[in-house]
Design brief:
The chain has 418 residues and is mainly beta. It has three helices and 26 strands. A hairpin with a 2-residue loop joins strand 23 (367-369) and strand 24 (372-382).
């Protein structure tokens, strides 16, 4: 029996990242970042080390989680080389300036990799010696494994002074041939590099946009609420309650714009006592909403401030030191009060909204390793005027800062923060 002839199908069309002529993208999942294609080169004498997969015009090479340190060593005169050994090193150093105590431990220590070695038959080292290392995601300390910390350095003077530095470097040891005529010195070349493990939030900031009143009604679980009270120093006044709302995820990228909402609530007499610089007509028991008055006669002192603080805590030989540094301050805008038939016995609510970001000086997010903790908190301070009969109130909300945004994360290189 004769079988029909087989005609192989035509090959599938070539896949492209972007739509071609006459094509349209129906859906797009953000996150895939193209790998860097430039190189970083260090020259020393007649030897060069070339690292690939780097960004353009960088001062120091950089790698992320599960990064691959790869490249080549170029020798102008390879005949004098007897052996090439490469290894990766990482070290965390901590010092307390007040006591002089210090400690350090290794965060990365790859076994020496013998890249090339001459043999007894007189072979010559090649001009180009390639190498390739995979960075481990963890390190071992006192028989326990911990995530490898990012490159980090801070010097905090003062009574709680600290010095913290986590550094990484590539070390290339070159052994040269010995001869009776010339005793050439061996060479060690080092290249410091940055290690920045990338991480992303597990969920968006607010799924229904940043309109607080609409979002809190439809999805109240998407907002985290912190509450504090400004207590009066006089017994005839009632406390003023401050409610602070931020997105419930509390995990944000350093570059994220974080929305927030502030509400002050209290009776009319307490509000008037808290704002002595404002004329009484700003809070009148009338039917008129005085939106213009609120904008025109806002307080002359900064009674509401939202600060992003970085807390660095170190522990050495039983001694603990904590340093708090402001990294950014939020922008707070008043929402005009809408007062309808408010009597002296009823509660008045005032609202503000604003935004805050991680700040331009942050390169790494929150992290923790043995003897070192780097955390971030939002501090909302409600500060009465000097003539006020109320005390200061604060809302402190711990958050976690990560490297990537939820919408722009490269899921192949970043890990979800939970």
């Amino acid at each position: 029996m004769m079988l029909p002839s087989y005609t192989p199908p035509s090959p599938p069309p070539r896949y492209l990242r972007t739509a071609g002529h006459g094509e349209t993208s129906l859906a797009h999942t953000p996150g895939e970042r193209p790998a860097p294609t430039s190189t970083f080169t260090k020259h020393e004498g007649r030897t060069s080390i070339i690292l690939d997969s780097q960004e353009d015009n960088i001062e120091r090479p950089s790698y992320g989680r599960h990064g691959v340190v790869s490249g080549v060593i170029y020798f102008e005169n390879p005949s004098i080389v007897a052996e090439v050994v490469i290894k990766l090193e990482g070290k965390l150093e901590i010092s307390l300036l007040s006591t002089g105590d210090s400690m350090s431990y290794k965060t990365l220590n790859t076994h020496c990799h013998l890249t090339w070695q001459t043999s007894g038959n007189g072979t010559t080292c090649p001009n180009l010696v390639p190498f390739r290392f995979h960075l481990p995601p963890t390190f071992e300390y006192e028989q326990e494994y911990h995530p490898m910390p990012p490159s980090y350095e801070i010097l905090s003077p003062g009574s709680s002074g600290q010095f913290v530095r986590c550094r990484y470097q590539l070390v290339v040891a070159i052994t040269k041939r010995r001869s009776a005529v010339s005793l050439m010195r061996d060479k060690i070349m080092t290249i410091p590099f940055n290690y920045y493990p990338r991480m992303r939030p597990e969920m968006p900031i607010v799924s229904d946009g940043h309109d607080f009143f609409a979002s809190i009604k439809m999805n109240p679980g998407e907002w985290h609420q912190a509450t504090s009270q400004s207590q009066p120093s006089s017994g005839h006044l009632s406390p003023i309650t401050v409610d602070f709302f931020i997105p419930a995820t509390r995990i944000f990228a350093i570059t994220d714009i974080i929305p927030f909402h502030i509400q002050l609530s209290g009776d009319i007499s307490s509000m008037r006592a808290f704002f002595p610089e404002l004329p009484p007509e700003v809070y009148p028991p009338t039917l008129q909403p005085l939106k213009a008055s609120w904008k025109r006669k806002k307080p002359r002192w900064k009674f509401l401030r939202l600060l992003l603080m970085r807390r660095v805590s170190v522990q050495i030989h039983g001694q603990t030191s904590e340093n708090n540094a402001q990294t950014s301050e939020g922008t707070i805008l008043p929402l005009p009060p809408d007062i309808f038939a408010v009597s002296e016995s009823q509660e008045l609510q005032l609202h503000w909204e604003g935004e805050i970001t991680g700040g331009p000086n942050l390169a790494v997010g929150s992290f923790s390793v043995p003897n070192l903790s780097v955390r971030d908190v939002l501090v909302l301070a409600l500060t009465p005027a000097s003539k006020s009969l109320f005390l200061e109130a604060k809302c402190i909300v711990p958050i976690r800062l990560v490297t990537d945004t939820w919408s722009g994360a490269d899921t192949s290189q970043s890990q979800a923060a939970v």
